[in-house]
Design goal:
5-stranded mixed beta sheet; flat; single chain; Udp-n-acetylmuramoylalanyl-d-glutamate--2,6- Diaminopimelate Ligase, Chain: A, domain 1; CBS-domain; 441 residues; alpha+beta; 4 domains; Arc Repressor Mutant, subunit A
């Protein structure tokens, strides 16, 4: 049975794309208080099915697939450029496929402008009208307005006209950065991407019995199952050690562990790996915003995802960490073919003083230790603690050499000493204590 909150979310989801939503309207339609309606609208915004725009209000938008994350809706553009909507509000949910900067003659400008585009232009009324007639939305820079006839045309075609106080170059840079950020987000592997779906997940109810666990165990050969209540919310976890020496008729609620770790589908796989390592967990229930079970992830799922990321790194969007660590090159030394890692300090690695930033230095140290441990025992690492001695600042253009020494290595932990040199001078020395997540063989 659906809760009142879930019914409101379903109601919002059923509204037409582009429809304006208000707290008072939802409260009246669903016969709930304004506070209840407000909380539901905020959750719908988190789910990506509505968008709130200053001076416009909240509108129903189409939820985007992660595969098309690099595309922006006009509603998102308004927020990115701190814009004001002059007309065509009903088209804010639409997605732009490219933007065109109108810094050319009118005929040339229109040859580049088509349906689904966003024309970024200043106070050129004729360009505003022609762009709308071509099926493109318009973003007017410099805080300028447009004629009332153009606003009416925007309303008729349901194509937004947006005004921003920023100049053309700044607006284009802001939109480009927003697209770039979303491309990076798209490439980050989330728990949602690797989880076992609810339909394939085996679980028990809190009023199940030990006999039900035995039946599940015989059917699946699994030893641990999430336990849920009749609303689907995770109530606990039951394992083979929990049911040991209990009668078959004993309720699962009495033997299960009520302290259970759960994870959101929007958590990154790297964060999931860290949580599982530090807490020694083999399997984690995945929950939605209402804490209802939506699937599970296992240690093997996480390992496979991490291994895949190593083989197929990001291609469409590159983070600063990617740019920094990609410049770290292995160089064999000595007869035993031990490796040191070298890289040059580039402008991206420096702070305002022109020296290598502390964050970049620690990133390179962790990457060096990770590569060394991976070669020795095919293990991913999570840093538990790090003692850093920064001896000398590394200048722009300096060639750095990182040497690693694995001082201790157990089944789940390791201690690694990393030394950084530049032209024979010690730059820094770091002692890392790490947790290991071994690859399956």
């Amino acid at each position: 049975m659906l809760t009142k909150h879930e019914k409101i979310i379903r109601y919002i989801d059923s509204l037409n794309i582009g429809q304006k939503i208000s707290v008072r309207g939802v409260a009246k339609a669903m016969d709930v208080s304004d506070g209840t309606a407000y909380r539901a609208i905020k959750e719908a915004e988190n789910k990506g099915i509505v968008s709130t725009i200053e001076r416009v209000g909240t509108i129903r938008i189409e939820k985007k697939d992660r595969k098309s994350f690099q595309e922006l809706t006009y509603a998102e553009v308004v927020n990115v450029v701190d814009g004001q909507v002059l007309g065509g509000k009903e088209g804010l949910h639409k997605t732009l496929n490219k933007f065109v900067i109108g810094a050319m003659q009118l005929d040339a400008m229109m040859s580049y402008t088509g349906a689904g585009n966003l024309l970024i232009v200043g106070n050129r009324i004729k360009a505003h009208r022609l762009a709308l007639e071509a099926g493109a939305a318009v973003l007017i820079t410099g805080g300028f307005n447009t004629e009332e006839s153009v606003k009416k045309l925007a309303d008729e075609y349901k194509l937004p006209i947006i005004s921003s106080n920023y100049d053309t170059f700044t607006v284009a840079d802001m939109i480009n950065r927003a697209i770039y950020d979303q491309m990076i987000k798209k490439d980050i592997v989330l728990v949602e991407d690797i989880k076992t779906a609810l339909e394939q997940t085996h679980f028990l109810y809190f009023d199940s019995t030990v006999q039900d666990w035995l039946d599940k165990n015989k059917e699946t050969e699994h030893s641990r199952y999430p336990v849920v209540d009749h609303h689907g919310k995770v109530a606990g976890m039951v394992t083979s050690s929990d049911v040991l020496r209990h009668a078959p008729a004993e309720p699962i609620e009495r033997v299960m562990s009520k302290q259970v770790y759960t994870i959101s589908k929007n958590t990154s796989v790297a964060s999931a790996a860290q949580m599982m390592i530090l807490n020694g967990i083999e399997m984690v229930p995945v929950v939605d915003e209402m804490q209802r079970l939506s699937g599970i992830i296992s240690r093997q799922d996480v390992l496979k995802a991490l291994q895949m990321l190593q083989r197929h790194p990001q291609t469409s969007g590159e983070t600063l960490d990617n740019m920094v660590t990609s410049q770290l090159q292995a160089v064999p030394v000595g007869r035993q073919q031990k490796k040191v890692y070298e890289c040059e300090v580039t402008p991206q690695m420096t702070n305002a003083l022109g020296t290598m930033s502390y964050g970049v230095f620690t990133t390179l140290v962790i990457e060096t230790a990770s590569r060394t441990l991976n070669e020795q025992r095919k293990s991913e690492l999570v840093v538990e603690s790090m003692n850093v001695l920064f001896v000398q600042l590394a200048q722009l253009g300096a060639l750095l050499e990182f040497k690693t020494n694995v001082m201790e290595m157990g089944r789940r932990t390791a201690k690694v000493d990393v030394e950084c040199m530049s032209n024979g001078t010690l730059v820094g020395r770091v002692l890392l204590f790490v947790q290991l997540l071994e690859h399956s063989r």
